Every structure is written in C-alpha cells, then in structure tokens.
C-alpha cells in the first residue's frame, strides 16, 4: 500500500478487522499495526498464541521479532502501559515532561503543551491549570513567561511525580461523573467505586477550554453544554451504565427537575435522553456505598 494516502489508516484497520474479527475483544486486540494477545492463565495464553500464529500464517502475515514480547503481565500498547491494574502513563513520556526546561519561545511552549496533551486523560483540571500558558499562544500575544506560567509549569511537573492509574470499567456497576464548570473552562473525571465500595477510582479525565461564544453562555447553559460535551467523549462508557452525576453547583439539579425546557437547552436535553444519568451529590453516593 503506498504511503501518503488519507485513507491508509482506515483501510489497514478494516483489513485487520476482517482477518481477526472473531478473535477481537476475546483473545486479541488490534489497532492498525499494534496487536496484543491477552489471557487469564498461562495455559490459555499458549492456546491463544497458537490460534493467533495460525491465523497469521494462513494470511501470510509476518511479525517483527524485535518488537514482540511474550509471556509478560504488563506491556506497552498505543503508547501507554497496560496491565492487570489498569492503564498507566509511559514513564519515558513522564520523564520527558519533567525534564523539560522552562520554555523561552513560542515553539518550546507548543512542544511542552503537545507532550502534556498526549497524556491529558491522566491529568485532572489540565486546562484550568495550564490556562496562563495557553494564553501565550493567542494571536498577537507577546511571548512573556511570567510567574503564573512558571507556577502552572511546576504544578504539572509536580502532579506527574505520582501519575494516576486509570482503571478498567467494571460491567453492571454505576459510573460516577464529577463535573466542574468555570467561566473559561471545564473539567470532569469519570470513575467507579472499587470492590470495597469505599474508594473511588478514576477511569478517564477530560478537560476543555471554552471558546469565546461559549464563555458568553449563562451559567446554566455553560454547565449543560459541558455535560453534553463530556457525554459525547465518554459515550462508549456511559451508554452501558447508569451514571451518577456530581456537580459542585446546583444548575444541573434545576434542569433535571424541570419538565419543560426551551431553546438550546431543550436540544441538549434531547441529546442526553439516551443516557441513564442520575443527578446526585457526593454524600448520597457515599451513603449508598455504605448501605450496600
């Protein structure tokens, strides 16, 4: 297949799905040219590998031995570390960010933000924290690294000293969505209670900076828009689970209790109708966990 074509990635992935469709989500996971065989026991792993090799041989596909690792409990997939605990940040990427010197040019600012954005789903309130740095990239903005930028820079590095582990979703258990909406940005974290039902574990972090027209929304509209945006990004999780929504303010409680809405809020309400979202507060969730 020639390089440079726009549809190369989609075509390659379509071919992989055609060849391994009956094994995907069971014995293997395939994304373009990244493949992982997963098993619960060593004996089962040998059987799964044999089945995979037979399939590769059937279609005359070859693997690069230098890039293959066998019989391990943890490995790198799509730039992240995957193991039985969940998904972790690649320590090489964390080291690259923590060793980054203070940016002095716009290009260096862009390089730093690009590295951080790659692991954004592991970082809470990233947009809010890095707001002073983002302002340096505005059109006709003078490159002036001030005290606020340095504090944000150091805060991100400090956060990455102990990056969180994102856990896998447990079927048939409700999700917890924390939503924080400010004037210029929003952030949320999707999580679940652990097996003891006393500790909350993160599944995914989301951050967004509002554009100018979104910043002019009322508090109610901005909060509702943030919820709609978050559900679109987390659709694959929320469609299959009840979601307990926790917001630090009360606008969403008003929306969930009001039967008739108009304008853009009515449109957003229709978009949310396919999800099972229950507005609650943190005390109610802890009380429910203790009761069960």
UniProtKB/TrEMBL annotation:
<dbReference type="Pfam" id="PF17917">
    <property type="entry name" value="RT_RNaseH"/>
</dbReference>
<dbReference type="InterPro" id="IPR043502">
    <property type="entry name" value="DNA/RNA_pol_sf"/>
</dbReference>
<keyword id="KW-0255">Endonuclease</keyword>
<dbReference type="InterPro" id="IPR000477">
    <property type="entry name" value="RT_dom"/>
</dbReference>
<keyword id="KW-0548">Nucleotidyltransferase</keyword>
<keyword id="KW-0378">Hydrolase</keyword>
<protein>
    <submittedName>
        <fullName>Retrovirus-related Pol polyprotein from transposon 17.6</fullName>
    </submittedName>
</protein>
<dbReference type="GO" id="GO:0004519">
    <property type="term" value="F:endonuclease activity"/>
</dbReference>
<keyword id="KW-0808">Transferase</keyword>
<dbReference type="InterPro" id="IPR041373">
    <property type="entry name" value="RT_RNaseH"/>
</dbReference>
<dbReference type="GO" id="GO:0016787">
    <property type="term" value="F:hydrolase activity"/>
</dbReference>
<feature type="domain" description="Reverse transcriptase RNase H-like">
    <location>
        <begin position="171"/>
        <end position="275"/>
    </location>
</feature>
<dbReference type="GO" id="GO:0003964">
    <property type="term" value="F:RNA-directed DNA polymerase activity"/>
</dbReference>
<keyword id="KW-0695">RNA-directed DNA polymerase</keyword>
<keyword id="KW-0540">Nuclease</keyword>
<dbReference type="Pfam" id="PF00078">
    <property type="entry name" value="RVT_1"/>
</dbReference>
<dbReference type="InterPro" id="IPR043128">
    <property type="entry name" value="Rev_trsase/Diguanyl_cyclase"/>
</dbReference>
<dbReference type="InterPro" id="IPR050951">
    <property type="entry name" value="Retrovirus_Pol_polyprotein"/>
</dbReference>
<feature type="domain" description="Reverse transcriptase">
    <location>
        <begin position="1"/>
        <end position="82"/>
    </location>
</feature>
């Amino acid at each position: 297949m020639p390089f440079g074509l726009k549809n190369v990635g989609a075509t390659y992935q379509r071919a992989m799905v055609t060849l391994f469709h009956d094994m995907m989500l069971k014995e293997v996971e395939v994304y373009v040219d990244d493949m992982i065989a997963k098993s619960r026991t060593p004996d089962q792993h040998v059987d799964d590998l044999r089945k995979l090799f037979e399939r590769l041989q059937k279609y005359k596909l070859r693997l690069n031995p230098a890039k293959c690792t066998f019989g391990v409990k943890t490995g790198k997939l799509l730039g992240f570390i995957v193991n039985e605990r969940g998904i972790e940040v690649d320590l090489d990427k964390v080291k690259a960010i923590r060793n980054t010197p203070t940016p002095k040019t716009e290009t260096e600012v862009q390089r730093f933000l690009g590295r951080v954005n790659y692991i954004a789903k592991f970082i809470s309130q990233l947009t809010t924290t890095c707001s002073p740095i983002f302002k340096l990239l505005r059109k006709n903005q003078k490159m002036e690294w001030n005290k606020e930028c340095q504090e944000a820079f150091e805060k991100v590095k400090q956060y990455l000293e102990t990056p969180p582990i994102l856990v896998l979703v447990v079927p048939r258990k409700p999700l917890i969505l924390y939503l924080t909406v400010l004037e210029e940005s929003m952030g949320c974290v999707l999580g679940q209670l652990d097996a003891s039902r006393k500790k909350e574990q993160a599944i995914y972090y989301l951050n967004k900076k509002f554009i100018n027209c979104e910043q002019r929304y009322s508090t109610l509209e901005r909060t509702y828009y943030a919820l709609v945006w978050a559900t679109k990004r987390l659709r694959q999780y929320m469609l299959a689970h009840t979601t307990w929504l926790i917001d630090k303010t009360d606008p969403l409680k008003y929306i969930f209790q009001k039967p008739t809405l108009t304008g853009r809020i009515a449109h957003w309400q229709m978009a949310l109708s396919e999800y099972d979202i229950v507005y609650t507060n943190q005390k109610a969730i802890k009380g429910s966990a203790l009761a069960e």
